[in-house]
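User: I'm putting together notes for a lab meeting next week and I want to include a structural view of one of the chains we've been expressing. I don't have a solved structure, so I'd like a prediction I can at least talk through. The sequence is below, exactly as it appears in our construct file.
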Amino acid sequence: MAKAAQKRSSASDSGPDDIWVEVMETLRSWGSAAIEILKGWGRAVVIATVAFFSIPFTLCGVTLPKLKKGEVSQAARALPVVGLAAGLIGGIVFTAAAFLGLPPLVAAILAIAALIFLSGGGNEGEFARLADVLVSGGSKTQKLAQLKEPAIGAYGICVLVLCLGLRVGIVTYIAHPAAVAGALGAAGALSFAAVAVALYALRPARRSGFAFQAGRVTADQALVAVLLAVLLMILCLLDAALIFGALVIGALAAAKFAWFSKRDLGGTTKAVLGGVQQGTEIGVLLAIAALI
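Assistant: Thanks for the context. Below is the predicted structure for the 292-residue chain, given as structure tokens.
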């Protein structure tokens, strides 16, 4: 009884100033935690940008930080964000071209050209190189060696041209600027989330190169990337049928390239990541075009 009375007495002794101090300390601790979270996400976005979209900054004379081994995998959760940003930039280019009165086909070509400029054509080139290797004969070691060759064969060039044509054709078909921006944003978000999943599911095919330096993505990073991509797709498409169809077709495209790579190469390489990204992006755009 005496202890209870003492507690009630101490509680009654604490005035409004003490309560206000406690509230401010709580808010300060929450604010510090929020700032640390934002700093972590900001750094992750920077790393993801440097890894996949460094060309525009280099051309502008911006000195980018050199990535260390494992940094890309640690920032994998931010890949859908940079994919979304790239897609929206393509949508802005399409909208600007349409506003200037250019035909939809020309606007679509400019939008896809903007995407290629942002990445330096890296994913497209790696996709073509992977297509060449997957249809060639030889052992896994021979195919990995072939991936290092700078030249792209006739099959890879044909695949590259057809895929560029598909992307331009789909954007031309969608036509409406807002719908184009939404489709490209959704495709970018999911396709780069697929890259994070590939880095989680597949080990590096060799102990060198981009995939090895990127490191293995942890399960929680891959899960956050996928959930974030789904959320961004919902915001971009605002249609249940489009979202479901894009998710299914995009996931199937990514799984197809991952399976081929596991079978023929024994793991992932930069070319595999390019193939996964491009295949998923095209799959999402095809699904949207079919269901729109």
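A couple of points you could mention at the meeting. The CA atoms of residues 64 and 106 lie 33 Å apart. The chain has one domain: 71-291.

User: Perfect, that's what I needed.
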